[in-house]
Amino acid sequence: xxxxxxxxxxxxxxxLVLAASPQDCRSCHxxxxxxxxxxxxxSAHSRAGVGCGDCHDGDxxxxxxxxxxxxxxxxxxxxxxxxxxHVASRHGMGLHSGWGCTRNLPSRDLGECxxxxxxxxxxxxxxxxxxxxxxxxxxxxxxxxxxxxxVEESCxxxxxGHLTELKIVRDPGVCAKCHMGPDHPQWEMWQTSQHxxxxxxxxEAVGPTCQRCHMPGGSHDVSRGITATPxxxxxxxxxxxxxxxxxxxxxxxxxxxxxxxxxxxRADTVREESTLLTKEADAIVWDLADLGELDPLPTERAPHPxxxxxxxxxxxxxxxxxxxxxxxxxxxxxxDWAKAVKGSYHQNPxxxxxxxxxxxxxxxxxxxxxxxxxxxRGGGSSPAGRTQSAEEDLGKALEVLKNKFERKAISxxxxxxxxxxxxxxx
Length: 426
Prior knowledge:
It is globular, with a radius of gyration of 26 Å. It is built from 21 helices and two strands. It is 53% helix and 1% strand.
């Protein structure tokens, strides 16, 4: 047995049969990829006798074309514990939370098939889809989507390809390339919080990093302590309680237990309040769709990759080929909700309030105003320009009510009560 020291975890590495010895590769790669060769030579892999062929066991031409990359499962042959933790975490669902089958796209990249299909199989490993991914060009899907979402099957996304220095993955900056921006600015929140300031000025002994809170003790389970989905849906009670205990265990390394509990509960409350605001806005947009007042209507624009000409306001909502009010709703749900909620959990008051909560409420003001404008355009006339009769008004109102009930926006009791009221008034 050999011991691989200084990479991820100190795990026993079984003796490996080299598909190609380092000497076989070195003669060419000394000039073809000198930096990669030098990095390997200085790595813990080289010192432990792990050669090129132990990881790169694919076709050489496919390697040159960027097709035969090293999947995480290859790293898992030696780094078993880290790999198991990784697969069980949110990172282990990276690809399958942001992809979509490209088989019907004219610009499809055949190389993308391998992310959801085993070699030679048409059966998908995942049924998760992403409309926004499918709307992009092949180039944008590659650099704007795949570079982050490939974290599921590529350890190199954090550890790099040939370096094994732990200081690389202990630097919070390694998290930033994915965990930043308007939809999940965790890095910016941390960097400008008291935690980030203490780290910058006094180091990790005083200022906790992303890794210290979310990967304690070198764990590769980045989901530890998380009590809800990325969309804010709380986990089942028992799972939620266990996750909260995990996070509190980290917090009390620096804080009093009562303080940690109060702050986490306060963030839970912000999440609940913020979600209610988005639900109100969501209902406004659906009411407009029922009335046929969206501009343009889903039937009048480019089809949604999954829903065609139907309205979509859930996790598959688009930021292109929509109406203006839907664009406002997208910003509210995808950007500002995340800033308010994640800003609260990351102890950043500016993100929680001004970037998050204030924007959420101003979004709702804009959405209400745009809804009023759309409803009032044309002076209460039908799209054809003629005034509707009372019977037509009643029919439309009943149709709208029925649509709300069928999409579970109202209960059976509310539906019956409102239907009775409409019939009585008309």
